[in-house]
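Figure S7 source data.
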Amino acid sequence: MQAITVKVGLASCGIAAGADNVYRRLESYLLESSKMVQLKRTGCIGMCFEEPIVEFDGGDLGRVTLGKVDPKDITRLLDEYLSGHLSETHLILADKHEAKHNDLMGAQTRIVLKNCGVIDPQSIDEYEQSGGYQALKQVLEMRPYTVIDIVRGSGLRGRGGAGFPTGLKWGFVFDQPGPKKYVICNADEGDPGAFMDRSVLEGDPHRIIEGMLIGAYAMGADEGYIYCRAEYPLAIKHLRIAIQAATERNYLGSNILGTDFSFTLHIKEGAGAFVCGEETALMHSIEGMRGMPTLRPPYPAESGLWGKPTNINNVETWANIPWIILNGPQAFRAIGTQQSPGTKVFALAGKVAGSGLIEVPMGITIRDIIYKVGGGIKDGKNFKAIQLGGPSGGCIPAELLDTTVDYDSINATGAIMGSGGMVVMDEDTCMVDVAKYFLHFTQSESCGKCTYCRIGTRRMLEILERISSGKGEIEDIDRLQKLAENINHGSLCGLGQSAPNPVLTTLRYFRHEYEAHIVDKKCPTQVCVDLLTFSIDETKCKGCHVCALRCPVKCITGKRKQPHVIDPAVCIKCGSCFNSCRFDAVVKA
Amino acid sequence: MSPDTQLKQPYQRLREVIEERKNLRNPLIEILRIAQEIFGYLPIEVQEFIAAEMNIPVSKIYGVVTFYNFFSMKPRGKYTLNICMGTACYVKGAPKLAQMISDVLDTPMGETTEDGRFTLSAVRCVGACSLAPVFVIGEDTFGRVETKDQVEKVLAQYK
Ligand SMILES: Cc1cc2nc3c(=O)[nH]c(=O)nc-3n(C[C@H](O)[C@H](O)[C@H](O)COP(=O)(O)O)c2cc1C
Ligand code: SF4
Ligand code: SF4
Ligand code: FES
Ligand code: FES
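C-alpha cells for the predicted FE2/S2 (inorganic) cluster complex:
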C-alpha cells in the first residue's frame, strides 16, 4: 500500500486560525499509535477562509482536503479517512469525489503558487523533487544573453505594480559594464491589504532564490539582497533555512555546480516604512540610511546599490522565472493576454465569501474572480466595489465588473493592477470612508521630501474629514480634484504621484455618495458616525430602561414602562442603545 | 543595585554588538534593531552612545530612528498589541475593534497601559485577512474577535 500522508497548512493565517494545534495533536497521536502515516507541514493552500486546513493523501479515497478542522476532531477524521470513510462536513476539495470548493480551484492556473500548500517549504528535497533547481541547471549551460532573450520573449511584466517588461530591464543591466552588479528582490509588500508575496516567501522560498540565481547569471551579478518586511517573521525564517540549504548544495556560493558562476544572497529586514518599497528608497535603506526616494535617472540599472548596476524585481516576478525557463516563453504566452501574458496572484479579501490567495490567468474578468473563484459576496449582500492596488490604486464599481484583468484594461478604469491586493466591498461600505482611509495611510507614510506629497495629502485628508463629519461644502469636490492634480504633478516618487487615486476613482464612480454626505448630511451606509442620529421609536419602545443603563453619557431618560427619549445634544453616537434594545425600538439613521 | 550598575550591562552588550558590526557595509539599522531589543526602546542617551561608538553624528542616527516606524523613542509595554489596520480588516470593522480594545484597556492607541503590560499600536496587513479583523500580541495572531468578552478573554492570557 502507498504511504498515507497528512499535510497541515502552516502559513501565517493557518497558524492564526489554530493550525499548529492541529499539527501538534496529530504529532502526538501518531507518536503513540503505530499507524504508517507521514505527517508534513506545508504553506498556504489558498483557501484561507477554511483554515485550519488538513490534506490526506495516499488512501483509497485519494487526495482529500478538509477545512475548519478542530484540533479535537482531527484524530477521528484521520481514522475515518484510513477506514475509507469520507467526512462530508469538513470536505472542501477532493480529487476523486465531489467537494464543495472543487470548482473554485478549477478556475485557477498555478505557476507561482504551484508548490504553495503542496510542498514543505523547509525542505529543499521536496523542492528538488517538484522539479526545483532544474531551471538553474539548464541556464548554467546557456549563454547569459540567451536567458535574457527567453525572458524577453515570454513578455513577463513586473508584478510589483508598474508592469514594466522584465526582459527589457534585465537587458539594461546586462549592457552595463561589470564586474560588480547586484540583483534585489523587493519583498517589502507595502499594500496594506495584501499578502501574496508573503505567502510565496513562506510557502515556496526556493522558487524565489532560483529565480534570482537565474537573473544574476544572466545579468552578471554576483551578489543579491532580499529586502523583506520585518513584520514577516515566518517568511524570514523560511528564507534563512532555504538559503542555508541551497548553500550546502552549492546552488549558492562560489563556483556554483562546478561553473565559474558565484553568487551570495543576503536578507535585509525592513523597518516599517511604506515608501521603502519604492526602488530607490529601498536601496538607500539597504545602504543603512533613511529610505527616501531619489530622482531617477539615474535608473538602478545604471547606478543602483552603492552606485553599481542593479536589477530589482518583485517577489512574484522572480518566482515566475524558473517556470518560464522550464516551459519556454511560448508556453507562458499561451496563458493570459497578448499584452499581459501569464498569470497574476491576488490576495482576495474583504466582503467576499472565499477570501484567500488565488492565481488566475490574465484576461479573466473581475466578475469571474469574485463569483467563480471567490464564491460571491459574503452573507448574500450586494457587491459595491473592488479595490485594487491599495493606496496607489482605485475602486472599480459594479458597472465595470466585466473589466478584464490585464494592465491596460485596469488602468483604463482609473485603478491599477498593483501588486495584487484585491479588497471586495459590499453595500455596507462607505466610499468616502474608504478614500479617507487610504489618504490617511499615504499621508502618514509620505517621506516628507516633496511639499505637495507632504502638505497636499494633509489638505485632502482634512477636506475628507470635513465631508465625513457633515461640514463639507459642495466646492470641496473641486478642491479635491485640483489638489489631486497638483500632488500628482508635484511629487517625486510613485507614492505621492498616485496618492490621490483612491479619491479620484471614488469621486468618479461614487460621486453621489460624496454629495449625500455634503448636501443631505447623511452617510448612506451609516458608517460615518458624525452623520448618524439615534432616536427611539415610541410605538415600539416598551420602556424597559435597558438602553438608559447602557448609555455611557446617560442621555436616555424615561419612566419605566413608558417610551424613552434620547437627548441628541448629549448623545455621543456610540450605538450602545441600538445594540442593547431587544425590541428594535432604537432607530439609527 | 544602583541604576548605574543596572544600566552598565546593557551598554556593555551594545558596545559588543557595535564592535562586531562596525566594519560591515551597512550596520546602522541592524544595530539600532538590536539596541531596541536590549533596551526595549531607543532613548536619546542610547542614540548618543551609538553615535559616539560608531563615530557618526547623532543627528544621522536620530534621522534614521524617526524615519522608520519600527523604532520607538518611548518606553514600551511588556507586550505590543498591534491592531491590524490593513484594508481588509478596516472594511471589516478594525476601527471598532480598536475602540473596543482601547476601552477595555482604558488606554488610547499609541500609548502604553498604566501597568506597563501593553502598548497599543496599529500595523498593516499581517497576512491573515481571511480572519479579519485581526490583532497581534507578540507572535500570536487573533482573528474574528468581535465582542468585548472575547477581547477580555484574550487579554487575560497575558500577564
Ligand atoms: C511608494 C511605492 C511603494 C512600492 N512598494 C512596492 C512593494 O511593496 N513591492 C514591490 O515589489 N514593489 C513596490 N513598488 C515598486 C518598486 O518601486 C519597483 O517598481 C518594483 O519593485 C520593480 O519590480 P518589478 O518590475 O518586478 O515589478 C513600490 C513603488 C512605490 C512608488
Ligand atoms: S512623493 Fe512623497 S514619498 Fe515620494 S519622495 Fe516625494 S515626499 Fe517622499
Ligand atoms: S431598550 Fe428599547 S424598549 Fe427598552 S427603553 Fe430603550 S428603547 Fe425602549
Ligand atoms: S494561509 Fe492558510 S490557506 Fe492561506
Ligand atoms: S488586512 Fe488585516 S490581516 Fe490583512
